[in-house]
Amino acid sequence: MKGRDLVWAISIVSVAITAVPIIFILYYGFLVFHSSAGLSSTVFISIGVTIVSSALAALIIFLVFTPLAYELSRKSHAVWEAVTDLPASIPHPIVGIAFLIIGSPLTPFGKFLSSIGFGLFNTLQGLVLALSFVAMPIYLRSAQSIFASSPVDPENFAMTLGASRMRILYAVLVPGASREIISSSLTAMSRAMSEYGSVAIIANYVLTYPFNGAQTVSVEIYQSYGYLGPGVAVTSSALMILFSLAIVIAIRFVGGGNIASRGRRGGTSGGGFT
Predict the structure, then answer these.
(1) Model-level pTM greater than 0.70?
(2) Distance of CA 92 to the CA centre of its chain
């Protein structure tokens, strides 16, 4: 049939390689093991911790790094790009150790944070900061590409009216690419939801309000596997896959379908400016 060539066949194999482990987890988690401990309130609370902290991380990333994405889309900053790519290439336990040192009362900055009651170890804020750090490159590069491909006419028009670059960013570019920006934020959120390495060090337990002793689901599943057996861990994993799938569907829905269809429709449109 038309379009079904060697590339199509290899692509089918690639999708199958991706889907098979997920299908196995869902089948064994819900139909074979179906562990009650894997569906306990503790697991649901850990999923709640994961979703809330990841959503907060995505919000922080949007607020802090959107201007940088705009700057990098308009001007070349090789050193800046290298620095902001670094969180994606270093082992993530290093990230946890870094934030552990930053918040330690053994350092002047850590003493200052302690004096204002802003602890990082086993706190929600420490967890959110670590997740923001590891998920940031995904959002930054995506937003940078979005801004780089956006029409410049609305931007130039706003400049002739004396608008600042910050106002152009939030009055023209972000509204014009709102679907893509939200999709990129959700992608960063989904990356944060999968994090384990940094979390296991900086926030193995979240001892602060409102979670008071809960864990992220990645830590919960790892400990379940070690202490309660694979049955519990597999069921918890299957449950988390459903929540992750909901985020992925949201990304596809908000983003307006696949990349190819968006490319055929053309780039993002500029927002209004008055």
Answers:
(1) yes
(2) 14
Q: What are residue 131's DSSP bridge partners?
A: none
CA distance 179 to 256: 8
- Backbone torsions φ then ψ of 113, nearest 5 degrees: -60, -40
Tokens 């908000």 correspond to 254
The pLDDT value given to residue 269: 47
Q: For domain 19-256, give the CATH number.
A: 1.10.3720.10
- Say if residues 169 and 70 touch (Cβ distance below 8 Å): yes
**Backbone Cα Rg of the chain:** 21
In angstroms, rounded to a whole number, what is the distance separating the alpha carbons of residues 236 and 252?
A: 25
Under a CB-based contact definition with an 8 Å cutoff, are residues 251 and 190 in contact?
yes
Average pLDDT over residues 245-274: 64
Mean pLDDT of 203-211: 92
Structure-block tokens of residue 268: 């993002």
Mean local confidence (pLDDT), 13-22? 96
- Cα torsion angle, 255, 257, 258, 261, sign: negative
Q: Alpha-carbon distance 31 to 25, whole Å?
A: 10
Question: Structure tokens of 4?
Answer: 């079904």
The H-or-E segment that residue 96 falls in is helix 92-102
The tokens describing 54, both together, are 């990841």
Task: Point out which residues pair with 206 in neighbouring strands.
Answer: 214
